[in-house]
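Appendix C. Worked example: 1,4-alpha-glucan branching enzyme
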Amino acid sequence: MGDAMNVEVKDIDKLMALDGYLKPFEREIRRRHGVLQEWIGKINQCEGGMEEFSQGYKYYGLHFQPDNSVIAREWAPGARDVYLTGDFNNWHWESHPFKKLPFGKWELHLPANQDGSAPIKHLSEIKVIIRNQAGQLLDRLSPWAKYVVQPPKEANQGVNYKQYVWNPPATERYLRKHSRPAKPKSLRIYECHVGIASQEPRVGSYDEFADRIVPRIKRQGYNCIQVMAIMEHAYYASFGYQVTSFYAASSRCGNPEQLKRMIDVAHAQGLYVLLDVVHSHASKNVQDGLNQFDGTNSCFFHDGAKGEHSLWDSRLFNYVEHEVLRFLLSNLRWWHDEYNFDGYRFDGVTSMLYHSRGIGEGFSGDYNEYFGLNVDTDALNYLGLANHMLHQLDPEIITIAEDVSGMPTLCRPVAEGGIGFDYRLGMAIPDKWIELLKETSDDEWNIGNIVHTLTNRRWMENTVAYAESHDQALVGDKTIAFWLMDKEMYTHMSTLSDPSLIIDRGLSLHKMIRLITHALGGEAYLNFMGNEFGHPEWLDFPRIGNNDSYHYARRQWNLVDDELLKYKYLNEFDRAMNELEERYGWLHAGPAYVSWKHESDKTIAFERGGLVFVFNIHPTQSFSDYRVGTNWAGTYQAVLSSDDPLFGGHNRIDKNCKHHSDPLGYAGRTNFIQIYAPSRTAVVYARVSD
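Step 2, the predicted output written as structure tokens:
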């Protein structure tokens, strides 16, 4: 490539100005960007540009022509022969061979029937047959399959998924009725899983989610849903992270048209819809997955140890293979164009970039960890290409990286030499809360350490803050509510039950943890389905170890709907918190200024978005006439109190009381107000007059 310093990076000066520690690595940043530009150049020269390249699903797979003939194409570079079989030819494996084309491509033309009808019908079962180099015939599902279904147990046809042609008549296709809502300035994400959204012990459906769950999400004040486990996965208990069919929507929950309706209904409610996309690895399944599709151990993946993720027991993509890039980039384009998803959370970004590291092997923050041979630059290049393609396709798309490494430049624009994500998950935050709840009583919490964890993020790289996600809810761990209240939730969550100090403490800290995370921890906020009201217990999918039980693979909405249970208090606080953010917009207002963190008082105060936040975590001590600094002179009034009776509190804050600022200043701020700070209470103050 020549001298890396001569690689043009349009806005690299902005990147260097943001983070001076990157200067010693400027040459490598330019080199990385140069590789990205080389790929873009190849695609422009050989493929007619990214627009054409990223629509591989229009070329590969099964396609019905205007005259009702059918064209099928596959990429199988290691195959000796390729055939198509199915209902249409009475399962004669070798009667319909593909023609071999250059570069490992195969093509088959099926003329229309004599009566003009298509030779393959809607919902016909088909398979791709591969003859490997040893002459063996192997049955496979097309990597481009749009609809795959597991046979019912009573059919006694095994557990492998079957591919069915999805080509419904026009009268059965869902037509969008609603346009996409405006891209939120403040992103409040509701992480959800359609299958476990059902209250009944079974798999929930797309239609049920649209009709029953979307209205709940809207009422709670969220403006975005992040949907997990949509890409088809044979193993339900994998939570969608062992993908077998990348272009197929999970048939457990319904058909493709029903998913399109669900997204349209969410859009009608003003909700952005993000897809949890898994391009970091793939299931090892052979007969109903990508693995060994062409009869070799490579094809979409690296051969040998480089193509194996030993910890996840899965396959790793070959990100420098031309057709693999087409497959993955087209996959992102497919979910956007076909289903109208508004963006993506990229799962396993840290693992993609550092898959040689073990689980739990942390990062010190030394910049040398982010450059050189420590990083899988092929994967990094793919992520840059993906973000470049997506944001060119649609500037309103949102991309989020599941990253724990803290890699600099990950959430800076590609034009600066960054990787182009809009946000990264603040994964250290939930770890900190669980650590505190497991190991330390709240009267010994280190206030400075809490504030540091919540504010320790890369300057000008947006972070999604969250107190807990699906990870903390899985069997083997506990939700925050269950860590706080445990078995008391079975006996003392009724408003009619005897008072419980454990429940009282649990409700108070649950609200405070979520508010301080929301207000101090990032530029977006995320909550996992049900945690907003303190859903008890844990998540556990049906599997052999639990006798295929759905008891813990559901959400008990009846708990929050019951007026006699205290779950309603947490739910109402969550709603009020989101509504206050909608009104004041602290998530997009820039970082907070923390003016006060007092270890013995267990208090924290900060300003953000025109509001003053005060937290008293102390278990027993309340403070009268407590001084809180602010740079904004005026009269203040409480606009949210976790101690409000509506939220199960003790009503120790008079929200009608006005607090006039004093210009003498305090805690490094030009003014202060004096307030009452009850124990285990968070209060938010707004300026009501100058």
